[in-house]
Structures are given as C-alpha cells and as structure tokens.
Automatic annotation (TrEMBL):
SUPFAM superfamilies: Family A G protein-coupled receptor-like (SSF81321)
Name of protein: Olfactory receptor
Residue stretches making up the G-protein coupled receptors family 1 profile domain: 41-290
Compartmental location: Cell membrane; Membrane
Length: 315
C-alpha cells in the first residue's frame, strides 16, 4: 500500500485497440486472420529450415530463430487480444500482466539483436566468402543465438521487475491492448524514475548498437557488390541479402517512427498503431518476405509438399 487512502491494484483493464463496440467483431476477424497467417508462415519457416538438408546453413539457422522469435512475440499478444474482442470487460490479473510484459520484452529485444546477427552473417558471406564457414561456424552460430536469448531474457527480467516494483493504486485502466511499459508506468502512484531511466537507456543502447551493426554491415556489403565485375554476380550477391534488407527496413522503420517523432505529436493511439505493426503485422510479413524473395525457401517448400503428398498417397 502506498497510502492508506489507496487500494493496491490486483488486476488491470485494457481499453483495447478500439473502444467502439461496432468494431469489435470486424477487428476480431482481421486480427484472427493476421495471427493465423503469422502462425502458418513462421511454423513453415521453422519446419523447412529444420528438415530440408539444403537449408542447413548459418543463414537459415538464424532465419529459423527469427521465425521462432516472431511466433513467440505474436503469441504473447494475439490470443489475449482476440479474446478481449469477444468479452465486455478486458481484464488481466497483476501477475498475468507482469508475465506478458516480461515475455514480450524477451522476444522484442531478441528480434532487435537477431536482425543485427543476421546482418553480420550476410556481411561475412559476401565480403569474406572464403572464410565464411570458418568465421560463422556451427559453434559460433550456437554461441550468437545463445547470447541473444540470454541477454534478452536478462534485460526482460530486470526491466519488467523494475516496472512492477513501483506501486499501482486505484487507477488500473491501461490505455493499450496489452501490458506495455509506458501505459503501465503512467498508472503508477509512486516514483517511476528508475524504471523509466533503465528502460530508456536499455532500449536506446539496444536499438542504436543494432542499427550501427546493420548499417556498417550493409555499407560494406554494398561496397563489395559494386566491386563485382559481372552483372550476374552482383545480382546473385544482392539477392542473398535483399530479403533481410527488406525485413530490417520494415522493423526499424516502425521503431524509428515510434521513438523519434516529436513529443507534441506523440500519443497512445500512435503507440497502439506502431505496436500492432511490430507485434502482429511484422511477424506476419517476415515469413512472406523471406519466402517470396528466396528461391531456396520456395524450392524447399515445393520439395516438402511433394514429399508430403507422396507419403500421403502411400498410406
């Protein structure tokens, strides 16, 4: 209890994506389709990169983990949000909210780092092709992925613990569709300087370091591609990183739009739109980007479907 006149919050109420009753059912079906495509697309990437022998390379190893992260990030948010469209009171318990925030932070930080790892992988593959398998060995791949998950988990534990170490009393209406840091801290009736400072420093560091790695990697990649004499060689080199460049542009574009806009234009409605993109839309788009622009993935999908049909006929 922060004060005798206040009651400690035991549950939170979401305002949701929209408070208009007539939009609840249409929005339910829109986000159900988005989540369905997300699950189907990312599970397909995970399955193909796991079972197809021609996709057992570092690039597809990292792509598999990006798909796992995208699937996890979307699953933390979407099911609870879909249920909220069908019920009148959009509530979540104090501990459910803490768990959702922690899980969300694990996956969002992991995605920021994984995109940087994938950019480094493309840099080595194009700029140092002869040393590629030595530099990005299986042990290095496992180490990079393990460090990504370990760091994101540690950051999420500290950040979510600091957010829920402050006192929440009386007001428990979250102006969002899931438990996020900014709308939660806005409800606190105690000093929020520590969680705000930690979250700002952590988010800024992660985003800036990741963007620098991506920019430096692709600057060197572009220089290497320009040095290739044959147009066919340049086209082939560019095609190996085009999908990742597109995925990075969409993800960081959303992040930059959210965090660098003028404070006078900043609003929770804007945050909601941006949050829909990086929690639901981007996890849906990534499998499409990597599938539609990647001949190896399309070929692997064709082989998988052919083998599955043959196995079914033999039953």
């Amino acid at each position: 209890m922060a004060n005798g006149n206040f009651t400690q919050v035991t549950e939170f109420i979401f305002t949701g994506v929209s408070e208009r009753p007539d939009l609840q059912i249409p929005l339910f079906f829109v986000f159900l389709v988005i989540y369905g495509l997300t699950v189907t697309g990312n599970l397909s990437i995970i399955t193909l990169t796991s079972v197809d022998s021609r996709l057992q390379t570092p690039m597809y190893f990292f792509l598999r983990h990006l798909a796992i992260i995208n699937l996890g990030n979307s699953t933390v948010i979407a099911p609870k949000m879909l249920v909220s469209f069908l019920v009148k009171k959009h509530t979540t318990s104090y501990y459910e909210c803490a768990t959702q925030l922690g899980a969300f932070l694990v996956f969002i930080v992991a995605e920021v780092l994984m995109l940087a790892v994938m950019a480094y992988d493309r840099y080595v593959a194009i700029c140092n092709p002869l040393l590629y398998m030595a530099v990005v060995s299986r042990w290095v791949c496992l180490l990079l992925v393990s460090l990504t998950y370990l760091y994101s988990f540690s950051t999420a534990v500290v950040a979510s613990s600091s957010v829920f170490s402050v006192t929440y009393c009386s007001c428990n209406i979250i102006n969002h569709f899931y438990c996020d840091i900014a709308p939660l801290l806005a409800l606190s009736c105690s000093d929020t300087s520590f969680p705000e400072t930690f979250v700002f420093i952590s988010a800024a560091t992660n985003l800036v370091v990741s963007i620098i790695i991506v920019l430096v990697s692709y600057f060197n990649i572009v220089l290497s591609i320009l040095k290739i004499r044959s147009s066919e060689g340049r086209k082939k080199a560019f095609s190996t990183c085009a999908s990742h460049m597109m995925a990075v542009s969409v993800f960081y574009g959303t992040m930059i739009f959210m965090y660098v806009q003028p404070q006078t234009n900043h609003s929770m409605d804007t945050d909601k739109v941006a949050s829909v993109f990086y929690t639901l839309v981007i996890p849906m788009l990534n499998p499409m980007i990597y599938s539609l622009r990647n001949k190896d993935v399309k070929a692997a999908l064709k082989r998988f479907l052919t083998n599955s049909c043959c196995s079914f006929k033999l039953m």
